[in-house]
Amino acid sequence: MCGIVGYIGHRSAQEVLLRGLSKLEYRGYDSAGISVYNEGDLQVQKVLGRLVALEQHIQTPLIGGQGIGHTRWATHGRPSDDNAHPHSDCSGRFVVVHNGIIENYQALREELTSMGHRFQSQTDTEVVAHLVEELYAGDLFTTVIQVIARLEGAFALGIMAKEEPGKLIAVRKASPLVIGLGDGENFIASDIPAILEYTRETYILDDGEMAVITKDGVDLFTFAGVPISKDVFHVTWDAVSAEKGGFDHFMLKEITEQPTAIRDTLTSRISPDGSRITLNEINLTDEVANTIDRIHIVACGTSYHAGLVGKAAIENLTRIPVNVEIASEYRYCEPIVTDKTLVIVISQSGETADTLAAMREAKSRGCARVIAITNVVGSSIAREADDVILTLAGPEISVASTKAYTTQLICLYLLAGHLAQVRHSEGANLIPDIAQALRALPEQAEQVLQTSAMIEKFARTYAAAKEDCFFIGRGLDYAVALEGALKLKEISYIHAEAYAAGELKHGALALIVEGIPVIALVTQDKLYEKTVSNIVEVKARDAYVLALAWEGDAEIHKHADEVITIPRTLPFLAPVLAVIPQQLLAYYASVARGNDVDKPRNLAKSVTVE
Ligand code: AGP
Q1: Given pLDDT bands bounded at 50, 70 and 90, which one contains residue 268?
Q2: Among 564, 539, 538, 540, which Cα is nearest to 551's?
Q3: Which atom of ligand 1 is nearest to the CA of 402?
C-alpha cells in the first residue's frame, strides 16, 4: 500500500525522503512525490510512475532539512501526476501525505467545494489539505485535532504548514506509522525499513495517536490533544536482512530462508525433552480453552490457505470444529459468534484491512478470545488481538508470501498442540511424535530446496510456455494446491487453478487438453489411490503431469511424467514441505516470463484498504 516518509533535521530532506521511499517500494505503488520546506516555501514535486521517474522529474534538487514524501497505490482516483501525493490546499500553505481511505471524503469535498475550495485531484486525501486550510487559525496542532475529528476511515497522515516551519505533524488511525528518533533529527515512516539506516529507536504510534515532531523532539498526544508517553521500541533487524543478500530477487531469498525461519519459529516452543508444546505467549486460560466449542480462522490470500491447513491440524488434535473464512466475506456476513468461539486471525503484515475489520467484527460480537498469527511486531492486528503468536520469518519483502506461509503453518501446528494439551484431548498423545517431526522439518526443507534445478527446468519447459496450469490434490494436498496455484498466478500471470482432485470430473476435466501442465500432490497416504486415479484421469486426456510425492514412492513414476519427491514426514505436516516446490515453480516461471517477480502487477504487499 502507500508509503510515507517524513524528515526534519540537518540532512538534505530530499535525500532522506527518496532513500526512505525506495525502501518502501515493496509495498507496491504507481506514483510518488515529495515536499520540502525551504525559506518560507513548501516545494512539491510529484509524478506518475516509479521513484526513478520522480528523481528525473526533479530538475533542481530541493533544498531544505524538512519534508514529507509518499509512494501511492491508487484507491480513489486513477494513477496520475495530479493524484500523486503530497496534496496541497488552494494556496499551497499546507501539504499532506496519507495512507488509508477517508471514507467520508465525498461529503467533505462537497462541503469544501461549496465554501469555495478548488480541488486539483480525484483523491480522498486532498480533502485533508483543504480542511486544514479551512480550519487553520494560526496553530497547526489544534487545527489538525479539529480536522481529524471530521475524518472517518483509515488514515496515517504527515502534515506540514508553510507558516510553521520546523514542525511535522504525524497522525495514525488504522494505517501504520512509526516515528524514528535521532540526534538533532527525527523521522516518520509507514514502515521501519525506510528509516533503519538512520535510527533503530522508534515510537510505534497506536490508533488514535498523533505527534508533533521537531528536529530536537517528539511530543505525543491522543486525538483529543492529551499528552501521552510511549516506550521506545528498539529495532533489532539489520539493514542487510531487508536487502536481497545476493539473490536475484527477494522471493528466492525468502524461499531459501524457510529452513531458518521454520527453525526460528519453533525455537523455545517445544519443551527440551520434546514431550510438550510450550506456547507461553498464549494467555488463554485452561478454563476458557475448555469452554471453546467452535473456532473461526479468518484471513486473506495465502494466509487463508494457511488457515485451511490449520483447520486440519486443530480438528485432528482437538476435535473442535473449525471454520476457515475469507476475511472480506466474514466481516459482512454477520458471523455467528458466541463467548465459546475462539477466533484465530492470520496475517503476515498484520495490517490487512479486511482481516483487521473481521477481527474487530468478531470481537464486537463477543467472541471468547482472538489469537493473531502475524509476522510483524507492533502491527495493528498484533496490537488489537488478545494473544499473538509471532511467525519469526523476519522481514518478508516480496509481494508473494513464502516464508510467512510456512511459518504460519508451524504456528498453527503449535497452537493445535497447545489446545490439545490444555483440553487434555486424545490428540495430545500424538504431541511427542509431532514435536519430533516438527524439529526435523528445517533440515528436510533444506533437502527440498535441492530440487530447485529440476523445478526450474520444468518451469521453463512447461509452465512458462503455457497460459493455463492445474493443481490437484485431496485433503491437505488440496489445501496446499490452492496455495501453489495462487503463487503461480500472482507472479507468472499464468491462469492457474487448484482443484480438489475428486471434483475434476464434475466440470473442470473439460479443460484438460493435450499438454496442459497438471501439478498433482500425493502426500496424503489415506487418499493416495484416489489421487493416483485422478492422475490417470488427466493423463488419459494427454495432460503433462508433475507429481509431488514422498521419497521412495516407486508407484507414482508409473503414472506421472515427472516426479518431485519430498522427504517423508507425518502426512499431517506434509504441507510445510510440499509447498516449497510450488513456490519455486512459480518463481522460475515468473523469471522465465520476464516478470517483475517481487512486485507483480496490480498487487501490493500489504493491502491496507478494502
Ligand atoms: C500472498 O502471496 C499474496 N500476496 C496475498 O494473497 C497475501 O497473502 C494476502 O494479501 C494477505 O496478506 P497478509 O497475510 O499480510 O494479511
Answers
A1: confident
A2: 564
A3: 2
Q: One fold for both 245-446 and 452-592?
A: yes
Q: Give the rounded percent of residues in the chain with a pLDDT score beyond 70.
A: 97
559 CB-side CA count, 13 A: 24
Residue 352 in contact with ligand 1 by CB distance below 6 A: yes
CB atoms within 10 A of CB 380: 27
What is the reported pLDDT for 74? 66
Question: Does 607 sit in the ligand 1 pocket, CB within 6 Å?
Answer: yes
SS3 420: helix
Give me the chain's average pLDDT, please.
93
* Burial grade of 331 (CB within 10 A; 0-12, 13-18, 19 or more): buried
Closest CA to 413 of 310, 490, 565, 320: 310
Task: Select the more confidently predicted residue: 152 or 294.
Answer: 294
Q: Does residue 76 have a pLDDT over 80?
A: no
Helical (H) or strand (E) element with 285: none
Q: How confident is the model at residue 350 (pLDDT cuts 50, 70, 90)?
A: very high
- What's the pLDDT band for 186 if we cut at 50, 70, 90? very high
Please tell me the distance from the alpha carbon of residue 224 to that of residue 208, in angstroms, as a whole number. 9
Backbone angles phi, psi at 58, to 5 degrees: -80, 95
Give the helix ranges, DSSP H, for 169-257. 250-256
**Mean pLDDT along residues 2-22:** 96
pLDDT digits (tens, 9 = 90+) for 92-104: 999 999 988 787 8
Segment holding 158, helix H or strand E: strand 153-161
Q: Measured from the CA of 404, which atom of ligand 1 is nearest?
A: 14
Picking from 312, 291, 296, 297, the residue whose alpha carbon sits closest to that of residue 423 is 291
pLDDT band at 244, cuts 50/70/90?
A: low
Q: Is 411 a catalytic site residue?
A: no
* Cβ neighbours of 163 (radius 10 Å): 11
Q: Which CATH number fits domain 245-446: 3.30.1240.10, 3.40.50.300, 3.40.190.120, 3.40.50.10490?
A: 3.40.50.10490
The one-letter amino acid at 181 = L
Specify the pLDDT at position 176. 83
Residue reference for cell 501511492? 72
What is the CATH superfamily name and number for domain 452-592?
Glucose-6-phosphate isomerase like protein; domain 1 (3.40.50.10490)
Ligand 1 atom closest to residue 305's alpha carbon, by position in its atom list: 8
Entry pTM: 0.70
- For residue 391 and ligand 1, the question of a CB distance below 6 A is answered with no
Q: Is the CB of 359 inside a 6 Å radius of any atom of ligand 1?
A: no
Q: Tell me the CATH number for domain 3-236.
A: 3.60.20.10
Specify the range with the lowest mean pLDDT, choosing from 81-85, 133-137, 247-251, 401-405: 247-251
- 325 CA → ligand 1 middle, Å: 14
Residue 444 grid coordinates: 528436510
* Known catalytic membership, residue 489: no
Q: Which residue has the cell 494446491?
A: 481
pLDDT band at 488 (very low <50, low <70, confident <90, very high): very high
Domain residue ranges of the chain, discontinuous segments joined by +: 3-236, 245-446, 452-592
